[in-house]
Each structure stands twice: as structure tokens, then as C-alpha cells.
């Protein structure tokens, strides 16, 4: 399981890191789109969300406080998706379909991030220090007693 989990983390975290970098590389274009959606201070909003994406993606990719990183991703997706991809408001069928695809994709990504929040830390192959054998044994004992 370690290999597939690590590969999935690299892909999932990397996706958000690249998206965050894109927010900084294309701030003007993204801010224009955000302004069209009536987002207040669109330039600052694009930069702030870019920073959240990079921080959350890096956290997941490296396994450093990944629950917080996943929570940042969920917060971003839950906050931005209904505003930026409001397909239910679109009159044109092409725009409605495009926004619906992006909205549902974001909800699926949020579901993946929520699932990652349920995993016990530290994650395998993380940059974060791994618990000692003694700490692992205590955790296993507590879990067996609780079950």
C-alpha cells in the first residue's frame, strides 16, 4: 500500500501546488475572471487562494501536518467552487456544462481531501518524523482496548 499511497499523494498534492503556482503566474487573467464573478478584491483573492493551494498541496505531498493541508484544500474548494463555478446561474448551455464539470470535479477533489483527513498521522514516507516503536505500540494497545 505504501507505493500507491505515495504516488497518489504526489499526484494529488502536486496538482494543487501547480494550481497555486498558476494563480501567481496568471494573477491578472484569474483576477479578471474573479472580478466578473463579483469577487471582492479579486487580485488579492487570487494571490491568497494561490498561497493556500501551494501550502495545502505541499503539506499533502510531503506529509507534514497533512490533515491541516487537506483541510486547507477542502476550505478552498468549498469556498471557491460555488462562486466561481455557479452552473445553476448560467444561461448558455456551453457555459453551464463547463461550470458544472468544474464544480463537480472540485467536489470530487474535496471528497478526496476529506478522506485524507481521516488518515492517522504521520503518513508513510513522510518528511515528518515517524513515531518511535514504543509510541506505535502504545497507540496499537489503545486502539485494541477501544475496539
Could you explain how this protein is built, in words?
With 147 residues, the chain is an all-alpha fold. The protein contains six helices and no strands. Helix 4 packs antiparallel against helix 5 (93-117).
Keywords:
elongated; 147 residues; mainly alpha
Structural class by sheet pairing and helices: mainly alpha
Number of helices: 6
Write down the oligomeric state: single chain
Relative helix content: over 70%
Strand-residue proportion: under 5%
Brief write-up:
77% of the residues lie in helices and 0% in strands.
SSE arrangement:
Blueprint: H1 2-25, H2 27-36, H3 42-62, H4 66-84, H5 93-117, H6 133-146
